[in-house]
Each structure stands twice: as structure tokens, then as C-alpha cells.
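Design a sequence for this backbone.
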């Protein structure tokens, strides 16, 4: 099978920046190059300083002085590893369910035996602090909360800082799905007193899929030490001990680590606050652009995401047909909606290595495709 790849004619845009789905995203050219570097022994004096440097850069980007760990895997590994280490069967957890990924977080909690209390809102809406406070009060003795920071299926960002503060005031651990928010929008791990915030490097980290990155608090590590759940590969304590001395637990995914290292260099050269501001600007630009061509952006503007925008598919077309039309005419890949929005909404990803010109090209392509 061959995968057809068409690129835009403009030289800047032709560097593969046609991928406008909300992950995987366009891989940064420095990450592409870094992956081609020679491998060296995965233990010992060459890898140790390299890994210590990478862990330090990841701490800077997560705004933490605690630790950031990396496992080969996709974002979903973050649900499993967090829950396995921090939650015991029967623990009560409150989860924010505002779309497909929030629901999956809840389901993984149930698979591992948690007593999951879903705080659910209509797709397109987000969770207000008032709703969250009520849900916490109703749940009683809450061991932890599961918060989806940015719901990729709907383009909704929950007010993580405020929700986390309410949970921490009750002594609950805060587990955060930051898969489509980390490295795109403010995520102040230490200041917001979070315990577990995970992401996948195929999103705003500008890398190919294959690594799960998770910031872990000292408090979480203590909880993990006392947690009797059987585990090996995802054992937090083993991984934290290995990372403390520049190790990787098991055989490191060296080429992906090189890619991630190069991507973090690019982010830090831009400045993490500038990275957040760029995403914020681009999110607003996409929403305005869609509104300008008469397309209805999905969801409550109060929760609008700066990494992904969902919109109602125009002219009664099916989302799949619309996505294909955009791609056939321009070579630009956008996504369909998910779950109940699978046929009625499409999504544009604007996270990672992206600037306004390729989003303008996307908006133009969407505008052309709606004129059927
Ligand atoms: N959580 C969110 C918010 C996501 O957007 C995704 C994937 O898109 C996941 C979790 C699952 O990540 P993965 O597909 O990398 O396993």
C-alpha cells in the first residue's frame, strides 16, 4: 500500500506542514534530523549526561523542580501508568468528562477498580469551578481527581488551575491528561500543585509518536511507594530512581529521545511563554477565520482551546466527505469529529510546529471545500 502525500507548492509550506490534524503533528526539522544520529550504548557515560540534560529541559517546560519521566508508549500509557501507581481499587475519584478522552480516562479508572464519579457536560462545554466544587462535595472522601486539561475531541480547555486548587484544598491527588495541552498552553506543574501530568510527544512536542512524558510530584511518588497494585514496566518508583541518575529504566528509545531533545531545544530557544502565546494567537486566528467564512466553531468560547478547534461541518455535508474534499483539493489533512460529533464536526489542529501562513492555507482550503 502506498500512502499518497501531496505537498503545498509554497516552499515554506512544502516542508510537510500540511498535517493539520490534532496529532500526530508536523515533526520539527531539527527533530527529524536528530533521529538520524548514530546510536550509542543505552547505559553508561555517554547516555547519562544526555538524559540528565533532557530531563532538565522537560522540567523547565513543565515548570517543575520535581521530576519528569519518559516511557516508550503513546499518550494512553499516561492514563494507565498514573492510575496503576496512584489509585487503589475502591478509591473514589472525580473525573471531568467533556468529550471522548475524558470518558476514556474515566474508563481506565474503572478498569483498575476505582469508584469513578463522572462530572459530565454536553460536548463543547467545559467544567466550571462551581460545577467541580459541587461534584467534589457530593463525592465526599475523594482520593484523586482526573482532569482532562484540553479535550482534543471538542476543542475545549478546562480551567485546570482553578479545578486543581479545589481538589488540592480537599487533599485529593491531581492527575492531569495534558496530552494536547503540554508544550502548547500554560501548565504550571509546581505552582498549581499537580501530581501527575502526562502527554504524548506526537502532539505539541513536534516529534513522531512513541513517547509518553509525565511530570510527577514528590507526593505522588510517596503514594506510589505505598500502593500495592502489581506492576513492573510502569512502576513509578523504579523509573524515578533510574531517571535520578540519568537512566531510562529499560532500553531507552534513543532515536526518539534525540528527537525530543532537539524539539525541546527549539521550544526553549523560542521561550516557553512565547510558545504558549503563539498557540493562543493561532487559536484565536483559526476561530476568527472560520467565523469569517460563515462556519460555526463548536463549543463555548469561554473554554476555547489554543491547540485544536472543532467546527460544525458546513452545508450538511458529512464530516468524512468534507475532510476528504479538503484533502483532495489542497493536500491538507484535517480531522473529523469523534463520538456523537463524528459525522457532524471537523477539527483543525494548530499545535506544535505551526505558524499563521499554514493556518491561512488551511482556512482557504476549508472555505473552498464548503463551496460545493
Ligand atoms: N488524551 C487526549 C486528550 C488525547 O488527545 C489523546 C489522543 O489524541 C489521548 C489521550 C490518547 O493518546 P494516544 O492516542 O497517544 O494514546
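Sequence:
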Amino acid at each position: 500500500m502506498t500512502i499518497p502525500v501531496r505537498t503545498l507548492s509554497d516552499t515554506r509550506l512544502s516542508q510537510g506542514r500540511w498535517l493539520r490534524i490534532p496529532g500526530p503533528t508536523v515533526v520539527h526539522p531539527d527533530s527529524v534530523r536528530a533521529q538520524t544520529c548514530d546510536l550509542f550504548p543505552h547505559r553508561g557515560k555517554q547516555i547519562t549526561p544526555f538524559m540528565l540534560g533532557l530531563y532538565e529541559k522537560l522540567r523547565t517546560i513543565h515548570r517543575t523542580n520535581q521530576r519528569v519521566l519518559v516511557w516508550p508508549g503513546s499518550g494512553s500509557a499516561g492514563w494507565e501508568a498514573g492510575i496503576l501507581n496512584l489509585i487503589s481499587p475502591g478509591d473514589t475519584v472525580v473525573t471531568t468528562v467533556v468529550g471522548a478522552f475524558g470518558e476514556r480516562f474515566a474508563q481506565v479508572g474503572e478498569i483498575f477498580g476505582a469508584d469513578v464519579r463522572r462530572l459530565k457536560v454536553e460536548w463543547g462545554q467545559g467544567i466550571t469551578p462551581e460545577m467541580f466544587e459541587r461534584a467534589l462535595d457530593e463525592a465526599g472522601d475523594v482520593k484523586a481527581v482526573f482532569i482532562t486539561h484540553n479535550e482534543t475531541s471538542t476543542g475545549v480547555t478546562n480551567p485546570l488551575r482553578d479545578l486543581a486548587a479545589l481538589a488540592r484544598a480537599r487533599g485529593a491527588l491531581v492527575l492531569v491528561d495534558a496530552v494536547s495541552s503540554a508544550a502548547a498552553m500554560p501548565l504550571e506543574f509546581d505552582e498549581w500543585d499537580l501530581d501527575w501530568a502526562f502527554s504524548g510527544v506526537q502532539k505539541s512536542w513536534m516529534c513522531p509518536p512513541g513517547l509518553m512524558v509525565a511530570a510527577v510530584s514528590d507526593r505522588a511518588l510517596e503514594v506510589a511507594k505505598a500502593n500495592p497494585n502489581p506492576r513492573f514496566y510502569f512502576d513509578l518508583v523504579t523509573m524515578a530512581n533510574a531517571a535520578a541518575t540519568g537512566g531510562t529504566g529499560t532500553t531507552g528509545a534513543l532515536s526518539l529521545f534525540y528527537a525530543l531533545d532537539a524539539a525541546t531545544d527549539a521550544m526553549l530557544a523560542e521561550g516557553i511563554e512565547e510558545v504558549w502565546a503563539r498557540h493562543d494567537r493561532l487559536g484565536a486566528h483559526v476561530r476568527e477565520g472560520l467565523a469569517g467564512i460563515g462556519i460555526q466553531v463548536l463549543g463555548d468560547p469561554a473554554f476555547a482551546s489554543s491547540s485544536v478547534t472543532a467546527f460544525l461541518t458546513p452545508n450538511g455535508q458529512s464530516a468524512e466527505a468534507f475532510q476528504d474534499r479538503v484533502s483532495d483539493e489542497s493536500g491538507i489533512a484535517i480531522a473529523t469529529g469523534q463520538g456523537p460529533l463524528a459525522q457532524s464536526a471537523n477539527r483543525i489542529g494548530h499545535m506544535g510546529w505551526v505558524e499563521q501562513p499554514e493556518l491561512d492555507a488551511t482556512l482557504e482550503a476549508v472555505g473552498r471545500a464548503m463551496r460545493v
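The longest strand covers residues 67-72.
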